[in-house]
Design goal:
The protein is an alpha+beta fold and about 210 residues long. The chain contains seven helices and eight strands; from the N terminus they run αααββααβββαβββα. It comes from Streptomyces neyagawaensis.
Amino acid sequence: MTAETSQTLDRGLRVLKLLADTDHGLTVTELSNKLGVNRTVVYRLLATLEQHSLVRRDLGGRARVGLGVLRLGRQVHPLVREAALPALRSLAEDIGATAHLTLVDGTEALAVAVVEPTWTDYHVAYRAGFRHALDRGAAGRAILSARQQPGDWPGYALTHGELEAGASGAAAPLLGVNGVEGSVGVVMLADAVPERVGPRVMDAAREVADALR
């Protein structure tokens, strides 16, 4: 800690990060051990975070992330969307297909930004807010593959007809962006994705990741 930082705020943020990394919550004792501070400090931190609905405690006394975090999280999507739009526009115009940024939302993939090409006679209508299971569609499959990191994976996912009949998709995951799990891809009306599209969506995913760092 430096003279310009707040130790209390730092500890509070560490509490939120610890709680976010567990599905079962943590007790005061567990938090005390992980933070290296006494239980009284942890009680004060939790009480303050509870006042802002950032933390809740269940009947067993385990602390969990509160619904207030969701309200903060809703403000993240517009910021991410704004940062991603230049790369998505370039991708859509280059490939001549609808480009999208998709983020993980629970067990689903959520399209948060979509850009359609301006010069094509027709393209797939794909709207921001569209949801689908992570294990269907190129966007979700790219995210799942990045989690598993198989050695023979090319770095992008290709699918056909999984979300819309006659439509093919290609997507690459966002890598190296703390707190953001998602992918960048395109969807097109074609029986197969042209060979150059996979590497191109990887480039676009790197551009978006750089903009978010």
